[in-house]
Automatic annotation (TrEMBL):
Assigned EC number: 2.1.1.-
SUPFAM superfamilies, A to Z: S-adenosyl-L-methionine-dependent methyltransferases
Keywords, comma-separated and alphabetical: Methyltransferase, Transferase
Source taxon at top rank: Bacteria
An annotated GO BP: methylation
Molecular function terms, GO-annotated: methyltransferase activity
Methyltransferase type domain sequence ranges: 50-143
Taxonomic lineage from the root: Bacteria, Pseudomonadati, Pseudomonadota, Alphaproteobacteria, Hyphomicrobiales
Entry protein name: Class I SAM-dependent methyltransferase
């Protein structure tokens, strides 16, 4: 599957996704994934940043609120429109652009840092996105990204629970089977039943890669790995939001920070 087909799927998802994410139904993102990501982010105040696959812009706004001058790009026009409308309503100085992460429309060395929240595993040629990101970063700049965990969120992940809903295990299959746009259909699980019933499920093309594929792509690009993190809910959050308790047993997300080497002085 190529970028045009991926864009068509995301464009079809974008309206409901935006409405549901803004209603707070993307619980994994809001209660776990983004807070953990931001907790590990180096200081970005005053820096020039690029958010790749920004969606409707929720995380881009958080980066701007932390003091960065942000540009957000996404392949789906409806996401960009919603992000721009939010910017017009509450200006944070963010520039949004329709663009493909595999062909970034920016000059070499344009950004101090880049982020990609849960978007790289949705792109067919992750090596190209990494190469493009490397190109638009200044020497010494970093990319921090989150992806579905390659080991525990394979094309088949099933949460096994006992009769009291306690998580017993995570069942994983097909780790070694790379996928080329295999469609996963789902809705935000935290949405109320009547909302779920009233919308078409999202259709998300997946491009699963193994952990060693990811590390080898990063190393081949010339980026240096400086941080990895596998967020898990703490016991208190799991009690308050039992929906997220599968991540007590095995992580759903993987975070990495990689850096473009600066020339030796
Ligand atoms: C799971 S959503 C994450 C959105 C947002 N970063 C967030 O955390 O809420 C993945 C995003 O990647 C975007 N995307 C997929 N392929 C892309 C590509 N080749 N270039 C740019 N964006 C892309 C999708 O349109 C979608 O907005």
């Amino acid at each position: 599957m190529e970028a045009n087909d991926v864009a068509a799927c995301w464009e079809a998802n974008a309206e409901t996704w935006t409405r549901h994410a803004r209603a707070g139904y993307d619980l994994y993102r809001d209660a776990q994934n983004t807070p953990a990501f931001l907790a590990n982010l180096p200081g970005i105040a005053g820096l020039e940043g690029l958010d790749i696959g920004c969606g409707e812009g929720s995380n881009t706004r958080k980066l701007a609120e932390a003091g960065a001058r942000m540009t957000g790009i996404d392949i789906a026009p409806t996401f960009i429109r919603h992000a721009q409308e939010a910017e017009a309503e509450t200006p944070l100085g963010i520039a949004y652009r329709l663009a493909d992460g595999m062909a970034l429309p920016f000059g070499d060395g344009s950004f101090d840092f880049a982020t990609a929240f849960m978007s790289l595993m949705d792109m067919p040629h992750q090596d190209k996105v990494l190469a493009e990101t490397m190109r638009v970063l200044k020497p010494g700049g970093f990319l921090q990204f989150s992806i579905l965990h390659p080991c525990f969120a394979t094309p088949h992940r099933k949460v096994v629970r006992d009769e009291n809903r306690k998580v017993l295990a995570i069942e994983v299959r097909d780790y070694f089977r790379p996928t080329d746009g295999e469609i996963e259909s789902w809705r935000f699980g935290a949405a109320p039943e009547h909302e779920k019933a009233s919308v078409e499920p999202f259709r998300v093309p997946r491009f699963h890669r193994t952990l060693s594929d990811w590390v080898n792509m990063i190393v081949a690009t010339g980026l240096a790995i400086e941080m990895m993190h596998e967020p898990s809910v703490d016991a208190e959050t799991a009690r308050a939001l039992p929906y997220l308790d599968d991540t007590l047993v095995a992580p759903l997300f993987l975070h990495m920070r990689v850096r473009k080497p600066a020339p030796a002085v």
